[in-house]
Amino acid sequence: MADSLVQDLLPKPAEGTSSVPWWRRIVEAVQLPLLALFTAFVVGAFIIALTDLAVLALLTDTISRLNAIGYALLALTAAVIILGIGISRRPEVILKRLGFAATGRQSRWFNIIAVLLTIAAVIGLLITIGFGPVLSAGAESVRRAYGALLEGSLGNPAQMIAAIQSGDGRQMAQAFYPISEALVASTPYIFAGLAVALGFRSGLFNIGVEGQLFIGAITSVFVGYSITGLPAIIHIPLALAAGALGGAAWAFIPGFLKARVGAHEVINTIMMNYIAFRLSEWLLNGPMKRPGSVPVSPFIEASAQLPRFFPDPIRFHFGFFIAIGAAAFVWWFLFKSKWGFELRTVGANPSAAKYAGMNIARTIILAMCLSGALAGLAGTNEVLGVNYNLANAFSSGYGFDSIALALLGRSHPAGVVAASLLFGTLRSGATRMQNVAQIPVDIISVIQALVIAFIAAPAIIRSIYRIVQAKGSDMVFTRGWGR
Amino acid sequence: MAATTTLSTPRRTPAQLAALAERRRHRIIGVVMVLLGFAGLALFANGTDSAWVSTFGLNTGGTSAIRLGDLIIPTQTTVIVLSSLALFAGGYQIIRGFGKSSNAILGLIILFFIASFLVWATGDKSINLAAMLKSTLLRAVPLTLGALSGVVSERSGVVNIAIEGMMLSSALAAAMIGSATQSLWIGLFGGILTGVILAAFHAVLSIRYKVDQVISGTVINIFSVGITSFISAKFLSEFPDLNNPGIYQAVPIPGLSAIPFIGPILFDGNFFLYAMFLLLVIVHVALFYTRWGLRTRAVGEKPRAADTLGINVFRTRYNAVLLSGALAGLAGAYFTLGSVGRFDEGMTAGRGFIALAAVIFGNWTPFGAFGAALIFGFADSLQSRLAILSVPIPSQFLLMAPYIATMIALAGLIGRTQAPAADGQPYEKG
Questions:
Q1: Residue-averaged pLDDT of chain B
Q2: Which residues from B are below 8 Å from A401, CB to CB?
Q3: Confidence at residue B7, expressed as pLDDT on a 0 to 100 scale
Q4: A449 part of contact set with chain B, CB < 8 Å
Q5: CB contact under 8 A, B157 and A482
Q6: Is B211 within 8 Å of A456 when comparing Cβ atoms?
Q7: Is the pLDDT confidence value at A311 over 80?
Q8: C-alpha distances out from residue B210 to A254, A407, A457, B188, Å
Q9: Pick from B211, B407, B420: which is nearest to A268 by CB?
Q10: B229, A263: Cβ pair inside 8 Å?
Q11: How far is A283 from chain B (nearest CA, A)?
Q12: To probe the interface with B, which of A41, A196, A266 has the most B CB atoms within 10 Å?
């Protein structure tokens, strides 16, 4: 199992390199996503520091007190930065001048040393000029923000140990609440990320996950509150199936249009998103409205609620295991089943698939429906597991975030689960960051956007960190809508 | 046996196949017209009282010196006449066909249908038609500017689904810069510049790094939602002075604005309305009658051929995308400087995607996009009035109309849209 997972996760090795050990290949596969994440967080840190009012005040104050020497040193700093970037672009040239052989290993080490020296020189110069307080205030601001983020997402280890030692139920709940919230927040991400990933694998860009998620939520909440008197063992699967079917039906339309008339799925799924939003708005203000002034649906029956395992306030529920099960299913489907093989072939090379006698139209429709079903389950999960009813703003953009997750997870189910856990954790921790450090949660969206950019344009990351490109590691996501 | 049947079936040339498809399309158009006619009769003529009249106000209540009387028409008769026309046109289309003008006739019939709806909705009531058309035009301004942005970029072969994000970011930038400098014009410039910067990002990602253009657009959309909410939560609530740029006041054009009915609608707007008309003409002329336009379109259709002829594909695309960003920036500035006067989180509310729909619905032409924007603006303006008219149609369904119309247009069953051939494909210099 583990070995075949690795096989699928990785780009196929070029001939003659199969002797590379598997752990080495895992490192190669994850280094790009990890570096992309790291870089995005570094940029995020700059945004946090530069929008901190205290830092800004110090900065303007320091600049206003600069004298001629200060300006000269500032120019020198800029020169050092440019020099450092120059060296890190071409370390071999300088090494050769110095009389070294400039092997790959030598130039890599030389490069690292040069970059570290540059950073040290720049910081030193800035402190000499008098930017020391600004730098430390900025660092403090970033440390507080990311510290709160970490604690909000994973909880405080000391508190956890104390809680376990005391054995007190309420204390335990409090200590483990962040981690449980992180898992709760990750669950819809897993479903939605899988939906996008499945689309990518079959050459489709399902940007309509958000809409499919709404429809899935609508159908499942309807089954949840309108049918009464069923035992949970029947009611829950029924509501889940309704949600999956709703999402699949919504995705069927763009899939069908793509297969039959070649209408590009990106445009159609975007349009279907907004149709879904309006539809849910109408339903919640009309036919599905709970009596009262707020546009929300009635609460679902207790028999349709996904079971929770711990007393309040721990909201961790069964949906998480369904999500993991869905990931396992998608992995099996994509890599072990005949349909999954056809789907991937159509995605990788439609002409080859056609030549091999595969039914492209049917495969596209199937892929869209499956993707829509997963998206529908993301909405269903929120309705049946967390909210127990449907309000218009129930999704905080899971459908759009999921594009980042699929890219970060390289469209592999295991990768998607890992990426979802990461971003679910960040999202749930961001609330604490907002309260403690006054950093709006929206910084996570900014970081997410940067991650997508870096993953989609690996050349940027490669050129920053000077990584040699592995053969065939880039994937094609969609094709243009021209003919 | 099977072999003989295959042989005896006449082989059809691609031209014949295309003609067949065209004929089928025409027949579908006819059927749609007939259906619209019946729908008009069943929905709007049925159940109305023959004594009802529909009253349409023709004055915006503004500056025009000459006031017109109300337009009063009998509800039921008008609907029956319009629907019958639709039935006749549809029947003729199915039997003989209007040929090349089919699409135009279909447009007319759809207009009739909308008119019937309006007449029916105002049955026994009155509505201010002039005010409604004016609000239609105003709602079409950001859509048209956004759609122009899409047209320019996609004509050069770069898909731009980031109109929404560019609009949102530049709306914020325009509001903040305008407030900080106390100058609408500097704020406007800031908004446009923001659009250009985001477009530069889009261009570098999609042209230089050959990132999938949809992904690169998505990056800008997500980034814009994040950064605008971030800045707005961090600064605007604490410093409300930074979110008070004021708005461009309406400047009636002397003489023209005094024309009854048309004057107040077309010639009594603010800077953005006139800028839209001007840019519409400029972009149209530039795209179709200048060397720049020819090159841009060539690069969007057949980049390799253009390259062979010595056109710099990359530079042409960079220029188009940057221009597209400037237009989207202008569209975004409209929200804060032209209409509301302050920035609210998520204030573009998906209008960038309606603009994208207008690009497609308008078949990648400036005036087509303008027409689509007008239709979408009309649907928007109509839904806000449904409550007054007490029409039993949920406003959400009218709001869906742009999206459904675009999907129908894209499917090619009725009209047909044709994207630039190389739209969305990164160019690899061979």
A1: 83
A2: 222
A3: 46
A4: yes
A5: yes
A6: yes
A7: no
A8: 26, 16, 8, 31
A9: B407
A10: no
A11: 10
A12: A266
pLDDT at B4: 42
Closest chain A C-alpha to B349 CA, distance in angstroms: 10
Calculate how close chain B gets to A141, using CA atoms only, in Å: 14
Quote the Cα angle for B366-B370-B373, to 5°. Answer: 135
What pLDDT is recorded for position A19?
Answer: 60
Q: B402 preceded by cis ω (within 30°)?
A: no
Substitution target in A267, A396, A454, A455 with the highest count of B β-carbons within 10 Å is A267
Q: Considering CB atoms only, which of A440, A444, A446 is closest to B233?
A: A440
Report, as an integer, the average pLDDT of A247-255: 94
Check whether A68 has a pLDDT greater than 70: yes
- To which residue do tokens 């490669």 refer? A462
Q: What is the pLDDT of residue B63?
A: 52
The answer to whether A267 contacts chain B (CB < 8 Å) is yes
Helix (H, G, I), strand (E, B) or coil at A206: coil
Cα–Cα distance measured from residue B60 to residue B130, given in angstroms and rounded to the nearest whole number? 6
Given CB atoms, is A475 within the 8 Å cutoff of chain B? Answer: no
Judged by CB atoms closer than 8 Å, whether chains meet at B223 and A482 is answered as no
Q: A316 versus B147: which is more confidently predicted?
A: B147
pLDDT in tens, A81-132: 888 888 777 777 777 777 777 677 777 777 788 888 888 888 888 888 877 8
> B92 falls in which pLDDT band (50, 70, 90)?
confident
Q: Report which listed range, B44-48, B183-187, B196-200, is most confident.
A: B196-200
Q: What number of other Cβ atoms are within 10 A of residue A174's Cβ?
A: 17
Backbone angles phi, psi at B56, to 5 degrees: -115, 120
Query: What ipTM score was computed for the predicted complex, to two decimals?
Result: 0.82
The answer to whether the Cβ–Cβ distance between B225 and A401 falls below 8 Å is: no
> Any CB–CB contact under 8 A between A67 and chain B?
no
Question: Do strands B71-74 and B126-128 pair parallel, antiparallel, or not at all (unpaired)?
Answer: unpaired
Q: Does A160 contact B at CB distance below 8 Å? A: no
Q: Kindly report, residue by residue over B28-61, the tens digit of the pLDDT.
A: 888 888 888 888 888 777 777 777 777 777 777 6
Query: A467 — contact with chain B (CB < 8 Å)?
Result: no
Contacts of B420 in chain A (CB under 8 A): 482
Yes or no, beta carbons of A453 and B219 under 8 Å apart:
yes
Q: Closest approach of chain A CAs to the CA of B108, in angstroms?
A: 25
Q: Is the pLDDT reported for residue A181 higher than 80?
A: yes
> Which among B219, B396, B406 has CB closest to A281?
B396
Averaged pLDDT for residues B355-366: 87
Query: Is the Cα torsion angle B30, B31, B33, B34 positive or negative in sign?
Result: positive
Q: Give CA–CA dist B243/A112, Å, rounded.
A: 45
Tokens matching residue A324: 């993991």
For chain A, what are the domain ranges? 35-154, 177-411
Residues from chain A that touch B300, judged by Cβ atoms under 8 A, are 482
Asked if A477's CB is within 8 angstroms of B214's CB, the reply is yes
Sheet strands side by side (includes B126-128): B71-74, B53-57, B126-128
- The whole-number pLDDT of residue B2 equals 42
